[in-house]
Design brief:
Blueprint lengths: L5 E3 L2 E3 L3 E3 L8 H9 L5 E2 L3 E2 H5 L3 H5 L10 E6 L3 H11 L5 E6 L4 H5 L10 H14 L4 E8 L7 H10 L4 E8 L10 H10 L4 E4 L5 H11 L3 E4 L8 H10 L9 H35 L6 H9 L4 H12 L9
Parallel strand pairs: 3-11, 4-6, 5-6, 6-7, 7-8, 8-9, 9-10, 10-11
Antiparallel strand pairs: 1-2
Helix pairs in contact: 1-11, 4-6, 6-7, 7-8, 9-10, 11-12, 11-13, 12-13
Length: 329
């Protein structure tokens, strides 16, 4: 299987591997790392349109970017067409593409009648996507789930609405809101959506290995795969998907390679947010980079007790740079 380019509206993407928008994860430093490993498109964390129209400083911080991560997708959420449209107008200059979240299962978002809560309101979905389309000329995408629960599977209906209202592509995570991240993602739904629509369909869900990604592309016919939790501490997943697409073997990183990437990630974060926030954010990332290595449990405990960036660096250098470890990915 060859690496294939594809278009979202007027945006040409070099390969079919996309990094998912993930709250609390896909900050600028994380996105830079994933771009370096070959992701064709990366997304911001989910951005509140209510926060944008109120000129919230913390909200606008989420769309801060750098040239190295282009093209950048900005994912927004909200429940009122006029508010969402105004939010889009305020941030379209910062991204190459705008995505609307119809899949977030988090209770706080759902209580605000946003995210996956909107799957129960197809008419409002149509109004919001239509308002977004009128507000921007940027490529417009939508990310959805299978439905609210097993009794209300409506991804095909929502997909047709999105296409009719001017969306340029759609991403499906084939679990319901009620499932959260439990059970198995039903890839057959991705295939059904691809057959039903004319716009590109991106598949999401249960991609933990490069082989998973190729299986999804093959089984569903989707135009691209979206990588989420599988890339935690493992940007090599993206590189290995591209390796398989181009007929090359996959490879696992050595501890030394993990260290080099982890420290580069840390330094990006230090430049981006300063030491205090870097400690808080990089604890989890260092824990993820250590997964599968001997002694990682003790390392994680030490990392989570550390309050200084320099101490984090010393711990990482000692752990990854010690005697050769049997790497397991």
């Amino acid at each position: 299987m060859q690496k294939k380019c594809f278009n979202i509206g007027g945006l040409r993407l070099a390969n079919p591997v996309v990094l998912a928008p993930m709250a609390g994860i896909t900050s600028l430093p994380y996105r830079r790392i994933m771009k370096e490993f070959g992701a064709a498109l990366v997304f911001t964390e989910m951005v509140s349109c209510n926060g944008l129209v109120r000129d919230g400083r913390k909200t606008f911080e989420l769309v801060r970017s750098c040239p190295e991560e282009a093209p950048l997708g900005i994912q927004v959420f909200g429940g009122e067409p006029e508010v969402v449209a105004e939010g889009v107008r305020r941030i379209e200059q910062y991204g190459a593409l705008i995505d609307f979240n119809l899949g977030c299962p988090v209770s706080k978002v759902v209580r605000g009648e946003a995210g996956s809560a909107l799957l129960r309101q197809p008419r409002r979905v149509a109004a919001i996507i239509g308002a977004m389309r009128r507000a921007t000329d940027r490529p417009l995408t939508v990310k959805i789930r299978a439905g609210w629960d097993a009794a209300s599977i409506n991804f095909l209906e929502i997909g047709h609405i999105a296409q009719a209202e001017g969306a340029d592509a759609i991403t499906l995570h084939p679990r319901t809101r009620a499932q959260g991240f439990g059970g198995r993602a039903d890839w057959d739904m991705i295939a059904q959506l691809k057959q039903a629509l004319d716009i590109p369909v991106v598949g999401s869900g249960d991609i933990q290995t490069a082989e998973d990604a190729l299986a999804m592309l093959d089984r569903t016919g989707c135009d691209a795969v979206m990588i989420g939790r599988g890339a935690y501490g493992n940007p090599w997943l993206i590189a290995n998907i591209l390796n398989l697409l181009e007929g090359r073997p996959t490879r696992s990183p050595s501890p030394a390679e993990r260290l080099a990437v982890a420290l580069r990630h840390l330094n990006y974060h230090r430049d981006y947010a300063g030491d205090r926030k870097t400690v808080f954010e990089m604890r989890k990332h260092l824990c993820w980079y250590s997964r599968g290595l001997p002694g990682s449990s003790d390392f994680r405990q030490q990392v989570n007790r550390t309050g200084q960036v320099d101490e984090l660096i010393q711990l990482a250098e000692s752990f990854f740079g010690g005697e050769e470890k049997a790497d397991v990915c």
